[in-house]
């Protein structure tokens, strides 16, 4: 765990650094105990492309909840082949039939926080248990919660979190994709600007923010992967 003074110093240093610099430092400092998580959507593409150039051996963790659109799985495979990524697909320890038997039909509708905890947070905790660093492509312009994030964050539980894309904007993502002629998720053209699990994602309409199609029928904004895991544990394991 990094000392708070060191953490503050690094955050000052990296606040205006490029994603390339941050990733290079993370890999050189922590390899092989560093991985990134990706949901393989359009906005994930620049980070994955930068990793392929700067630290191609870095494992890319994809949590296969079992609820993804088939197009997301196909896009993961396409990017893995195109960028030669070191993708690590991880599944929940609870199968869908066990989930059904224990919690009944459509847990994602009745208690999406618990569903995300079982299908996303727990498998991520398991796979990163011995890792020192987890990189994520979150951006400040996405949600109010993300606005308050720092480039490096040491949570009470889990690996050090590094956010190399934190200061990128939606326009930066677009410009990078265009400059490097990079593909979009197959559902992007149909309005799926931000893509998560199929039952919890709808297309975004004109004028809405890019994450408006996620858990659109509830006030849920985050799946929990980018929240404090110890808080998530307390909430769901009482
Ligand atoms: S996004 Fe929806 S289906 Fe996926 S884990 Fe969360 S609640 Fe369940």
Description:
With 238 residues, the protein is α/β, with parallel strands linked by helices. It has one domain: HUPs (Rossmann fold), CATH 3.40.50.620. The chain contains 10 helices and 6 strands. A 6-stranded mixed sheet has the order 3-2-1-4-6-5, with helices on both faces. The two termini are 27 Å apart. It binds iron/sulfur cluster. Residues 65, 67, 108, 112, 115-116, 119-120, 196-197, 199-200, 223 line the site of iron/sulfur cluster.
At a glance:
The chain is α/β, with parallel strands linked by helices and 238 residues long.
Q: Which helices and strands, and how do they pair?
A:
Elements: H1 4-14, H2 19-30, E1 34-37, H3 45-54, E2 59-63, H4 70-83, E3 86-90, H5 96-103, H6 107-110, H7 112-127, E4 133-135, H8 144-147, E5 152-153, E6 160-162, H9 170-179, H10 229-236
Helix pairs in contact: 2-3, 7-10
Bound molecules: iron/sulfur cluster.
- The strand line-up of the biggest sheet is 3-2-1-4-6-5
CATH class: Alpha Beta
Count all strands and give the number. 6
Tertiary shape: globular
Describe this protein with a few key phrases:
alpha/beta; 238 residues; 10 helices; 6 strands; single chain; six-stranded mixed sheet; binds iron/sulfur cluster; Rossmann fold
């Amino acid at each position: 765990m990094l000392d708070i003074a060191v953490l503050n110093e690094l955050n000052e240093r990296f606040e205006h650094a490029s994603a390339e610099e941050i990733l290079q430092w993370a890999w050189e400092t922590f390899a092989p105990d560093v991985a990134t998580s990706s949901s393989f959507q359009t906005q994930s593409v620049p980070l994955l492309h930068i990793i392929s150039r700067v630290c191609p051996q870095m494992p890319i963790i994809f949590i296969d909840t079992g609820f993804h659109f088939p197009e997301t799985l196909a896009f993961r495979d396409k990017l893995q082949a195109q960028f030669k990524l070191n993708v690590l697909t991880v599944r929940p320890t609870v199968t869908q039939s066990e989930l059904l038997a224990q919690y009944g039909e459509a847990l994602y509708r009745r208690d999406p926080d618990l569903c995300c905890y079982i299908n996303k947070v727990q498998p991520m905790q398991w796979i990163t248990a011995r890792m020192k660093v987890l990189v994520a492509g979150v951006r400040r312009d996405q949600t109010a919660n993300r606005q308050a994030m720092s480039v490096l964050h040491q949570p009470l539980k889990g690996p050090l979190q590094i956010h190399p894309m934190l200061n990128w904007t939606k326009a930066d993502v677009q410009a990078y994709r265009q400059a490097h002629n990079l593909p979009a998720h197959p559902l992007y053209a149909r309005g799926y600007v931000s893509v998560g699990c199929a039952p919890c994602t709808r297309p975004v309409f004109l004028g809405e923010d890019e994450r408006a199609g996620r858990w659109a029928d509830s006030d849920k904004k985050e799946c929990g992967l980018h929240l404090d895991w110890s808080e998530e544990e307390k909430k769901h394991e009482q």
